[in-house]
Write a structure and sequence with these properties.
Blueprint: H1 2-9, H2 13-24, H3 30-42, H4 45-73, H5 75-95, H6 100-112, H7 117-124, H8 131-144, H9 146-162, H10 165-184, H11 188-191, H12 208-235, H13 240-260, H14 269-284, H15 290-301, H16 304-316, H17 324-353, H18 355-375
Length: 402
């Protein structure tokens, strides 16, 4: 663990991790805040689901696009503009009474304008630390983001029930703007400039590690979404046990990320970590009591952050620096689609077979991710003893004629 202490003492690392986590905190708040608010307006979870779906579609579409824009106009202008539009959409949903279609339109615009802070920070990381520190930094980042999923829903539920759903949305907006401004003030954004990509939009997906990370990330997050829905269904919406079990699950991910952060990334790394998620998720089907789920999901969680850290590292090591932001945007889009699909599939199976059906869906997604990681092992770079930094952008240099 001393290595992590040295890493966090590296100039700017602790600050930029804290700033980007604060700015991204609404990721763990907004869906639940919108769900509770729109359900209160229309007395319909179906209506709330439509608004959430529109917001998620916007985020999925915008991820690679706004990330690529940072190479054209710079990180600060793109993040500032998208942050302003996203905050305005959140304020509109909170304070303006609209018909359902208008809420959906505003949610779509807010999703399209969700600031690309995650791709930005993961593009900056290789310029802040040494090559040996980069993989552990990705592990710390993947582990630290579990704080968003542990604390975000708890804070949102407390504020929405004890104050109001409007206050919950406003608080999410405060994190977005406050954290976003803190992130924009980071000197690293001025020191790092993303070169304009010379490749067509989407071409980066032809890089096998990027496509592998996008597909496996999609399946990993689909598994997580199915498991989350199953835990809630198992204990009921009012049961405190569900929140505790989900927190234990997230803590398992945080511990796993820190424990495996220094392990060299070989070609089997992603498959092994996905296998851990599968084993824990599959065991959860047979242990539906509190302690049974706490233990099995602690095991499953131990593979989540390590798997994400591997995806971040192999993407970084496989693309040119000018393409890193777009590549991470595609990975994020895959994860957003996975979250929506995982919840939907789990919902149908929970209706038909109870929580066991939802856990089966989660295990199935994790198994598919494991098998794909095994089948396409050749697309997985071997980073043992190798620098995980992006490939340099090179171009011909004109020499003076003597």
């Amino acid at each position: 663990m001393s290595g992590y202490g040295d890493l966090l003492r590296t100039r700017g690392v602790a600050r930029i991790i804290a700033a980007q986590l604060t700015a991204r905190f609404p990721s763990g708040m907004l869906s639940l805040a919108y769900l509770l608010h729109i359900e209160g307006v229309f007395d319909s979870y179906g209506a709330a689901g439509l608004v959430l779906a529109a917001t998620s579609v916007g985020q999925a579409v915008a991820g690679p696009l706004t990330s690529r824009w940072m190479g054209v106009w710079g990180m600060r202008p793109v993040i500032a503009l998208t942050m302003a539009v996203c905050a305005a959409s959140m304020a509109t949903i909170a304070f303006v009474t609209l018909p359902l279609w208008a809420y959906m339109l505003v949610g779509l615009v807010g999703g399209l304008a969700y600031p690309p802070i995650q791709p930005a920070v993961r593009t900056i990381y290789p310029k802040m630390v040494t090559s040996k520190q980069l993989t552990p930094l990705f592990a710390v980042d993947a582990s630290a983001q579990e704080i968003i999923w542990i604390a975000g829903p708890v804070i949102t539920t407390f504020v929405a029930t004890q104050v109001s759903t409007i206050a919950a949305i406003v608080l999410a907006g405060a994190f977005l703007v406050g954290g976003g401004l803190w992130f924009l003030a980071s000197p690293e954004l001025g020191r790092v400039r993303i070169p304009r990509s010379k490749r067509a939009f989407g071409v980066v997906l032809k890089r096998p590690p990027v496509l592998l990370s996008t597909v496996v990330g999609f399946l990993l997050v689909a598994s997580c979404a199915a498991i989350e829905a199953s835990v809630v269904a198992n204990f009921g919406e009012e049961g405190a046990e569900a929140g505790v079990v989900l927190a234990i699950w997230a803590v398992g991910s945080l511990i796993g990320g820190l424990a495996f952060g220094h392990v060299p990334i070989g070609p089997w790394a992603l498959a092994r970590r996905m296998a851990v998620v599968f084993v824990g998720g599959a065991a959860a089907m047979f242990f539906l009591d509190f302690w049974g789920l706490a233990i099995t999901l602690l095991i499953a969680g131990a593979g989540i952050a390590p798997a994400l850290a591997v995806m971040f590292a192999i993407v970084s090591a496989s693309v040119k620096f000018s393409d890193t932001a777009e590549a991470y945007g595609w990975v994020g889009t895959g994860q957003l689609i996975g979250a929506a699909l995982g919840s939907a599939v789990a919902g149908f199976l929970i209706d038909g077979f109870g929580a066991t059906g939802g856990f089966a869906a989660g295990a199935g997604f994790a198994l598919a991710g494991t098998l794909i990681a095994v089948a396409f092992k050749r697309a997985h770079p071997d980073l043992r003893g190798r620098d995980a930094s992006p490939l340099p952008d090179t171009e011909p240099v004109r020499l003076p004629v003597s």
